[in-house]
Structure formats: C-alpha cells, structure tokens
Amino acid sequence: MLTVDFSRFPLAPGDRVLDLGCGAGRHAFECYRRGAQVVALDQNGDEIREVAKWFAAMEEAGEAPAGASATAMEGDALALPFPDESFDVVIISEVMEHIPDDKGVLAEMVRVLKPGGRIAVTVPRYGPEKICWALSDAYHEVEGGHIRIYRGDELLGKMREAGLEPYGTHHAHGLHSPYWWLKCAFGVDNENALPVKAYHKLLVWDIMKKPLATRLAEQALNPVIGKSFVAYATKPHLPEAAAESAPEPAAKAKRTTRSAKPTKATAKATTRASAKTTAKTASGAAK
Fold first, then answer.
1. Which partner from 13, 148, 150, 171 sits 20 to 30 angstroms from 93, CA to CA?
2. Contact (Cβ atoms closer than 8 angstroms) between residue 41 and residue 80
3. Helix (H, G, I), strand (E, B) or coil at 125
4. Contact (CB, 8 A) for 89 and 17
5. Alpha-carbon distance 196 to 185, whole Å?
6. Cβ of 280: how many Cβ atoms within 10 Å?
7. In Å, what is the CA distance from 254 to each residue of 15, 33, 85, 243?
8. How far apart are the first and last CA of the chain?
9. Do the strands 228-234 and 87-93 form a parallel or antiparallel pair, or are they unpaired?
10. Which three-class secondary structure string do you get for 145-213?
11. Is the dihedral of CA 197, 203, 209, 212 positive or negative?
12. What is the pLDDT of residues 154-193, one digit of tens each?
C-alpha cells in the first residue's frame, strides 16, 4: 500500500533515494523495483533487519532491474550519516508527526538532497486524525505516538521555510479512515471487535485484489476523508546571479588583499618612474 503517488513523483532508474523512517519498507521496495539506488533508514533495528531480508529476497527473485541497489540501515533522522547533497530523492512517509523537532528533520532532508532533487512528505490528514484523537487517547498517547496534527498549509509553510518549493499535494487512503475510527471507538488494541475484523478483511481484499469498485470508491473518498496528506517539493538550484555574487572564501580574500597592497620596493620604483616621466615632460616643454 503506497501513499506516495509515483505518477506525480517521477523516479528514474539510477536515482539515489533515501526512504527516511522507512518502517516496514513499502516505499523503499517500490523504489528498488523501479531501478533506484535505495537507502532505507529507520531507528527501529528490528524493522531494519526485516527490510534487509526483503531486499535480499527481492534481489534473489529478480524483482529489481540491473543497476538497482538497496541498503537498509539504522540511523537518526536528526543526524543523518550522509554528506551534503547525497540524494536525488527523499521520501518521508507518516514520520514527521512522531518527531518533536520536525523543523530539524526538514533541515537534514534538505541538506542531503541535491539541488533540483525531489522530496515527498506524507502525514496524517487533519480532519480524520482529529476524529481519531477525539475517539481514543490510547491512539496517540503512547511512547513514540503522534504528537501533533498538521494542517496542510502548516506543513507546506514549514517546507518553504526549510528552502523547498512545493509543487503538488493530494490526499490518500480514503478507505482507511473509517477503519481507524472503528479501531479507536472499539479500542485500539481490540482486534476481536466484529466491525474492526470485518473492515480489516475488506482492506486486505482491496490491497490484494485491487478491484475496480473499491478503486473508484477510494478515488471519490480521498478528497473528502483521505487518511493521509501528501506534499511534493523540489530543492531549488542556487541562481547563477547569486552564485556569482557569493562572497569569496576568507582565505582567498586575504590573499587578494595582500597582493593588492604595494610593497616598499614597489612604492620606491613607482616614485622614481614618476619622477623621470615628469622630468622628460618638462624638458620637452622647454624645447
């Protein structure tokens, strides 16, 4: 089940992709199938080990094209272990609502993204998420749970502040909002409630079979009760004018200043040359 729509977020074979907070790896697997060079990163070691197993199974089964690569690793979203401008694409799906320093995470993503690179951010949508919080404290008051609910314009504003240029948004998973409302109403950990079990079967059937009826239903529901808000943005290139007017490095500036300052010998030579020129000019005038 993908939240990012790759028809709106194009991926080219060979793109270097970071799936930040990859969880079970759903987006990382899709990028790998599309021929990308994928790094799936998460702080949960158990999930990373499972993702690594699936990467190995996909390679053995020939699911990834030649040239594609995949790595799963543990890491901290606020201190990414990569140099600046390492990735063409960054995906962070259903993660930022868990992290207190969301601006710090955005700054790190922008740092490792190449100029002209693309980023996809998905978070729970405000309306459906508000209902979940109203129905159940246990839904969000858990260790590592959701600590905020984003409005769409708020998230886009934070992305712009981080230096990104948003270019598109949409909502996803309209069929999933009622499932979570049922879970919150009957108990988040109560898997035996009949309405929850019945709706879960419907979702599994939809994911596995992708029937036309539920696809059309979800398309109609997404704008109204889509569970996720998805935003796409690019990291702009440094304008040529700005690059040309950028200040010189301090060391270079000092060298230039030193070379421009006349030495004593140069000053004396200049004075003598000036005096000779003046004398010749005066002699010529006298003749």
1. 13
2. yes
3. coil
4. yes
5. 10
6. 10
7. 40, 52, 29, 20
8. 99
9. unpaired
10. CCCCCCCHHHHHHHHHHCCCEEEEEEEECCCHHHHHHHHHHHCCCCCCCHHHHHHHHHHHHHHHHCCHH
11. positive
12. 999 999 999 999 999 999 999 999 999 999 999 999 989 9
Residue 130 in tokens: 């508000």
Backbone angles phi, psi at 196, to 5 degrees: -65, -45
Global pTM reads 0.82
In the chain, DSSP finds a helix count (H) and a strand count (E) of: 11, 7
What are the start-end ranges of the E strands in the chain?
16-20, 37-42, 69-74, 87-93, 113-124, 165-172, 228-234
Residue 82's alpha-carbon distances to 19, 21, 35, 37, in angstroms, are 13, 15, 21, 14
227-279 pLDDT, tens digit per residue, is: 999 999 999 997 654 545 555 544 433 333 333 333 444 444 434 444 444 33
Note every long-range contact of 151-158, with CB atoms under 8 Å and residues 24 or more positions apart, other chains counting.
151/126, 152/125, 152/126, 152/229, 152/231, 155/96, 155/121, 155/123, 155/229, 155/231, 156/231, 158/102, 158/103, 158/106
Distance CA 225, CA 218 (A): 9
Hey, which residues does 79 pair with through a beta bridge?
A: 76
Torsion on CA atoms 249, 251, 257, 260, rounded to nearest 10: -100
Residue 89's contacts (CB-CB under 8 Å, 6 or more residues apart) are 11, 15, 16, 17, 18, 31, 36, 113, 117, 118, 119, 120
Cβ burial of 44 (10 Å; 0-12, 13-18, 19+) is middle
CA–CA separation, 20 vs 113, rounded Å?
A: 12
Question: What is the DSSP code (8-state) at residue 239?
Answer: P
Angle at 83 between CA 9 and CA 107, to 5 degrees: 60
* CA separation, residue 23 to residues 19, 37, 72, 275 (Å): 9, 18, 11, 81
